[in-house]
Design a protein that fits this description.
Alkaline Phosphatase, subunit A; nine-stranded mixed β-sheet; two-stranded parallel ribbon; about 10% strand; elongated
Length: about 550
């Protein structure tokens, strides 16, 4: 009796090319196995990507195999799909961890960090344009849909294979389990990495612990934010030793310790700091500098700003929301509370409504839309720092007021991707910023810089030199005997620039014409000049507010909340 012809095209191809079909089938199965193993062993930090990480035996694979071998067909299919989808989700979270560790120096917080994905999209739009941002968004959506689906397919295929060869896969699982237990008991390693892996289980435990810690932190920080050493201090007893002074609190984007000490960036940056120290001295100004440890790294600048100004350690978005929704005293609102200063914010990086201006005690806010700039953006930065300071002079500092001025100024030209970088131009040419069209077009493209580790460091260093030059040139030209400048970095640049093991330290400097201002901080141990010594004091950024208020005569009158 003749054998029935294969009914499907796939079956006909197998019948015609049995060897090729078997090879293809085993290749696909090996791919499925490789995907599962890679997902189970995938590190969540870029620095951990090395061959030894993937030369381990994941215990989760052995447990999963034992379960799939033991289950009948329908429960096995359900378990395989569920396991694959779960592994896909964990893989996506690991990929988020990789990105967050690369850019922010920490893992992804599954409770708090979803809002930052919108900020990332905005950053891509500003840096890569509409088309680049759209392409990246589409790629992310495809990845989010494809990874769980592919992982589910891989586990189902492996489960079906084990069901067809139960005896062989059972023996293989027992042998590998024995090897795993032996390696674990003897602490055997390859390339400094344990062969017996519990990586995925450890990642899951870590995520669960972080969720619990985040929830506990929310409750504890709400109480902490209500207590304030100077919460009940009347305005008349705040910063009496600075009465009559024009105060400038200025943040330089991504100005970190690496800019001053890294062998690639520091020669140019240090030369600029030393030259500007001499220019200040020639104009009658003097400076002292030290180090602060920022609450953030690589990005999320607002966390650094709020930590410095509030005196609270604000290292996540929920803490930021909690403190800015309250009335905790900030350095800037302290000057507002006295009634003796006009308080303004110069915020070129703010491009939408910013209700936090009230929390910071700002009488008037100049955001990106109110500084009169008509020139091009420089990647993310909406305008060059030289223009920002020129606008500050035109709109506020150069005008007559019945009170001295307290200003909070954010300089953004040193924001990643550090290309193109503005050039210092003659001040009488700044105008409305249109002159920067030619500067921006002649500058380097982000793609030519950002992915080259040496070039990106060099361009980052140049951006810091530009920002410091813009700021100090402004003080030298427009400062007077009542000018007091406090400037600092908000955080270190991303790991590709600062280094995988970089600290979170940033430079801080106080500049004044009146020697009595710097005499008040003699006991701080700060270095003379704009460049802090390597062994200059290092304080947590959150400690600066109380030290500053105390140094300039403020009376502590605590509130307990």
């Amino acid at each position: 009796m003749a054998q029935a012809a294969p009914r499907t095209r796939r079956a006909r191809l197998r019948a015609r090319h049995p060897v090729a079909a078997r090879v293809l089938s085993w290749a696909v199965t090996l791919l499925a196995g490789a995907l599962v193993v890679v997902a189970l062993l995938l590190p969540n930090k870029p620095a951990d990507f090395r061959p030894s990480e993937f030369a381990r035996i994941p215990v989760e694979a052995l447990l999963g195999a034992a379960v799939l071998i033991a289950l009948p067909r329908r429960p096995r299919l359900f378990a395989a799909v569920l396991g694959g989808l779960s592994l896909g989700v964990l893989t996506l979270l690991n990929l988020l961890d990789i990105g967050f560790n690369e850019f922010l120096g920490r893992g992804f917080n599954v409770v708090l960090d979803w809002s930052l994905l919108g900020d990332a999209q905005s950053y891509l739009k500003d840096s890569a344009g509409e088309a680049g941002a759209l392409g990246a968004t589409v790629a992310v959506v495809v990845l989010v849909l494809a990874v769980p689906a592919v992982m589910a397919w891989a586990v189902v295929r492996l489960g079906n294979l084990m069901a067809r060869h139960t005896a062989i896969t059972t023996r293989a699982t027992l042998v590998l389990s024995t090897v795993w237990m032996t390696c674990a008991s003897l602490s055997l390693q390859v390339g400094g990495v344990p062969i017996a892996s519990e990586h995925t289980a450890a990642v899951v435990r870590d995520r669960a612990a972080r969720v619990k810690a985040t929830i506990r932190d929310e409750r504890g920080f709400a109480r902490e934010a209500k207590a304030d050493t100077f919460g009940n201090t009347p305005g008349s007893e705040l910063v009496p030793d600075l009465r009559g002074k024009d105060i400038m609190f200025t943040f330089i984007e991504s100005y970190g310790r690496s800019a001053v000490e890294d062998p690639i960036m520091s020669p140019g940056v240090d030369a600029t700091l030393d030259a500007k120290t001499k220019e200040l001295a020639k104009a009658g100004f003097h400076a002292k500098s030290g180090w602060l440890t920022s609450a953030t790294y690589g990005g999320s600048s607002w966390l650094g700003h709020s930590t410095f100004l509030s005196g609270l350690w604000i290292d996540n978005q929920n803490r930021y929301r909690t403190v800015t929704a309250g009335d905790h005293l900030t350095l800037t609102s302290a000057f507002k509370k006295t009634g003796d200063w006009r308080t303004v914010g110069i915020m070129p990086g703010v491009q939408k409504g910013w209700p936090e201006a009230k929390f910071y005690g700002l009488d008037h806010l100049y955001d990106a839309h109110h500084l009169g700039y008509q020139g091009p953006k420089f990647s993310w930065s909406t305008m060059p720092d030289q223009y920002t300071l020129a606008a500050f002079q035109r709109l506020e500092h150069g005008r007559k007021h019945d009170k001295p001025l307290m200003s909070e100024i954010i300089l953004t030209s040193s924001h990643q991707p550090w290309a193109p970088i503005p050039k210092t131009i003659p001040e009488d040419q700044v105008g409305d910023g249109s002159v920067y069209d030619a500067v921006e077009k002649a500058g380097k493209k982000p793609a030519d810089v950002f992915y080259n580790s040496t070039k990106v460091k060099q361009e980052y260093g140049k951006s810091i030199q530009y920002s410091v030059t813009s700021l100090i040139d402004y003080v030298v030209k427009y400062g007077n005997k009542n000018t007091v400048l406090v400037f600092l970095g908000d955080h270190q640049p991303m790991a590709r620039v600062s280094g995988d093991k970089a600290s979170r330290d940033v430079p801080v400097a106080i500049v004044a014409h009146d020697p009595k201002v710097l005499d008040k901080i003699t006991d701080w141990g700060y270095s003379d000049g704009l460049r802090p010594a390597h062994d200059a004091p290092v304080w947590k950024m959150s400690s600066f507010r109380d030290r500053f208020l105390t140094a300039y005569g403020s009376t502590p009158r605590p509130s307990k909340g």
